[in-house]
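Internal QA ticket QA-208
Title: Verify multi-chain structure generation after dependency bump
Assignee: T.L.

Test input:
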Amino acid sequence: MTRRVVVTGLGGVCATGANVPEFWENLKAGKCGIDKRTYSAGEGLDITLPVAPVDNFETRAAELGRDMTRADRFTQFAIAAADEAVADSGIDLASGLGARTAAIIGTGIGGQAAMDAAYIGMLRHGRRPHPLSILKTIPNAAASHVSIRYGARGPAFAISSACASGAHAIGVCAEFIRSGVADAGIAGASEAVLTFGALEAWKAMHIVSDELCRPFSKNRKGLVIGEGAGVLVLEEYEAAKARGAKIYAELVGFGMNADGKDMINPDVNGAAGAMRIALETVKIDDPSAVYINAHGTGTLMNDPTETKAIRDVFGADADKLVVSSTKSMHGHLLGAAGGIEAIASILALKNGVVPPTVNYDEPDPACDLDYAPNEAKERKIDVAISNSFAFGGLNAVLAFKRV
Amino acid sequence: MAEMEAALLEIIKNHAVGLTGPLTRETPVSDLGIDSFAVVEIIYEVEEKLHVEVPFNANENPFGEMKSVGDLIDALEKLAKPA
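Actual output:
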């Protein structure tokens, strides 16, 4: 008998929400969390860019317990999100389930702020690195802290596939549950790279917007870096049903592949292929009830490529479905994008509301789908698809349905 | 030296999660609730804030014969004395 995987808990933090209910309200309202901020590494080392920051998180982090005073911001985000997801699910990991529960938390970079602090201390102030520098920086720190905090003692590790890390983490965790390697999982991703050094490095790529993020709009100027985390609790369906869990959605499809071509240029075939794999076993009765939460970075290259890939997969039905990029509001959470966007997709499915693509000004002939411009719309959704396409040509696509 | 004692007590206090009463010279080290990593953090702070180098290898018993907070203070003051 095939084991099915369902989502029973949601937790998230990003520029447009300190928790999932606030995040969802702001998505529906089309609230944009992008603002100009200055990040400094000391005198003469400042950078000012539009970003999508999580404000006032330090106060909350201080309340997350002593272990979190010894953790980098990306781990604190992951724990804030995981606390919410685990509480939301009502799952009891102390009952023996802990040994069969996975903790898979992706990240593109890991403890950027801790690493920056160590280097700034050494190079500018002649200080030795703090002894916690390594434990704060390692990309598995978030996965390890999640495992320790909840006693999740099944498979635990970080997945790092740049902007697809979150979707890979959730998809791989679901595969573990489906195949019987685990019975439950805490899966998602976290990112916190709003530092002077990281932003200078991003700026050097010349793909970062100097104003807003305008996915699929002709006047788009690039991506806007965000931060935060998105974490799901996944469970085997029969077990979740037996304990009377609230079930948000079933993860019905997961497609992953690689372009195998280029570090930066996206590829229609790779993106389309990943969507096809995710939808292989998904029955779509009504194409107008399909919602795609696009990768939609707002870069010159991604948006038309993703549009072509959607057309390639859906053919004439592509004109019936609806697409949106919530990155226009919460920014690009990089490794955590697949985590927070899985939550947006699931809530769109559950509530029958398509969150909009905001900051959309002008149609682009190369981006010719329905992108739900600027205003949320009510709509029956049967299948929600979350696309993540990473630098390095790594693709991961998640598909959700109601149970 | 009183300054150094006060500074060390302050550093230890921030890591002594097991401490229930006041922190004094007489407090046994075993009552502080500090794990092996907290020892590493304390030594780092001593070196950075008090500018005293502490020869130390975390693979060895960090406290040796030192049983009380007073023993730690005495050891630190000995290290701080110019040769």
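Spot checks passed. The first helix of chain B runs from residue 2 to 15.
Status: verified.
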